[in-house]
Structure formats: structure tokens, C-alpha cells
Amino acid sequence: MRRMKMAATIKLNPQRSWDWKIAAYLFLAGVGAGAALVGAVAHLLSPSFTPLMQTGLWIGIPLVVVGILFLMWDLGQPTKFIKALNKPGTSWIARGSWILTVFLVLSVVLFGLWIWPFTVLNTMPGAVAVLEVLIAVFALGTVVYTGLLLGASKPIPFWSMPTLPLLFSVSATATGMKASSLLLTLDSLMRGTALPDIIATLARYIAIVIALEIAVVVLHLWGTHQTVTAKFSTLRVLRGPLATQFWLGYVVLGLIIPLLAETLVPGAGAGSEALWIMVAAVLGLIGGFILRLTVVSAGAKTPLPTMGGEIAIPANM
To answer: In 3D, which of 280, 103, 91 has the Cα closest to residue 178?
Structure first.
């Protein structure tokens, strides 16, 4: 008898378990923690960056809280979020939830004792510095975690690349700086005062971080060509159904235009400086969300090996 062979076919399915709510959670947590991280590090280096640190707290606390609400929404009910805290040894959602919780507690303590309703820490710079170091540590843990959460999904090679935590960390830093720049600019416009020197300093560093982000996203997309499943995800991003939101929403609106705008800020006149800052910040923040939405949507699961070939993992598993 002739031995019959079953044809090996591979059908790749984009994942459907996580959607825009997880992208919003990752984005808001990244922006909030990024703003606090940049503010804490800058203020530790120089007291002149006090407004940047305080702005980072104004941004970080509410955005992280709203981000957690999106996570609860995705989980279906608040009790699932509380249960997730009980499994830090096995769940990246649990580890991240603890990191976010500690970050929020420390931030609220510093905010409440330094900005409002109390100002007792104004005469205790040492205590402020200790809290800022702790906030910086947990803010860094938050921005890195936003990439590790997806990377923990091993059957999805596009997410498990080691470059993804780096990409999300750089993006969180950039969007955090843009959010701080936007808030400081709006505050100056509302008060009718000149833009603080911090704005020009931020513009220079934002341009550097954006350039770094471009390099990292290129590296990530190049690296995802190493496996069939990851390449499938990459092609969906570069010239498939996700191409428009990636190229137009993220690359053009989120990276190129903000990079050009930030480079124009130092030489812009007093009348146009604020406009360029706000354009760069708003488009950069939109691009940061689109990046995470694109990454989440692009994930595809590695097929399970079988005796006659491979079977794709269902998209909703």
C-alpha cells in the first residue's frame, strides 16, 4: 500500500482576545508613568525642574487611574482585577497591577504633601528626593511592563520579541514628555505668561527620543521577519489591513510631523512657538495610542504542531 500523506496547511489567525481597551490601558499607563519618570529624574538632577516634576504628577496620577479602569473594563468586572493581584508569581497582569498600585500610592503621597492640599514637604527636600527616587523606580517598571505584558504571550511571536518592551518604553518616555510639554504650554497660555525655559529644553530632548523611537520600531519590524507567524503580523502592519493606521497615523502623524515641529520650536518666534509645541504634543500622543493599537491588533498566534501538519490556534483563545 502506498503511504498517504496529509497535506500540511497553515492558517494564521490574528488574535481577538485583546482589543482597543488593552491598547488604551497600555497607552495611558505609559504616558502617565513616562511623564512622572521624566519629571522625577529631571528634578533629582536640578531643582529648576520642579514645575516638570509637579506636572508629571498632575498627568501621571489621573492617566494611570483611567488606564486601570480600561483594564477592569476589559476583564469584565472589578473583582477580576482584585483577583489578579493575588497571582503575581504567574500573571504579568498581576505584576503590572502591583507596580501600578505602588506607583499610584507614592505619587498620591508626594502630590498630597507637596502640591495639594498640603505643602509640608516644601521645607523637606530630602523627603521629596526619596519619594522621587521611588516614583522613578516604579514609573520605570510601569513603562517597561507595558511591553512585557504583551511579550508574556509566548504563542504570539510579534509580541514576544525583546525589542517590544524597549519600543514601548521609549514611546512612553516620548509621550510622557509631550504630555508634560502640552500641559505646561496650556498653563502658560491661560495665565498669559511667557513660556518657561523648560519648554525649549523639553523640545530638544523630545526630538532626540523620537529619533530613538524611529530606530527601535525599525529594529522591531526587522526582527519580526525571523518566524513565519511574526512575519505574517509584520506584513499586516506594513502593507496589509493595518498599513494605513500604521503609516499615516503612527509614522507620519505620530513621528515625522512631531519630530519636525520639535526641531522648529527653538528657532520659532514667540507667536508660533506655542503652536508648534501643541501640534507636536497632540499628534505625538495620538500616534502613541495608534502604535499600541496597531501592535495589539497585529498579534497572530503560532499554529500548534500536529502529526499531519499544523493547526492554527483559534483567534479568540
So the answer is: 280
* CATH at 117: 1.20.1630.10
Let me know if residue 284 belongs to a domain: yes
In-domain check, residue 3: no
Residue 183 belongs to domain spanning: 20-303
In Å, what is the CA distance from 153 to each residue of 15, 159, 296, 300? 11, 7, 11, 10
317 in any annotated domain? no
For residue 131, the number of C-alpha atoms closer than 13 Å in the C-beta half-sphere is: 22
Contacts of 95 (CB under 8 A, 6+ apart): 88, 145
**161, 224 contact by CB (below 8 A):** yes
Provide mean pLDDT across the span 73-98: 74
Q: Is residue 314 part of a domain?
A: no
Length of the chain, in residues: 317
Report which secondary-structure segment, H or E, holds 46. Answer: none
Q: Among 71-75, 198-202, 237-241, 306-310, where is mean pLDDT lowest? A: 306-310
Residue 305 pairs in a beta bridge with 310
- Alpha-carbon distance of 42 to 312, in angstroms, equals 48
Residue 92 in this model has a pLDDT that exceeds 50: yes
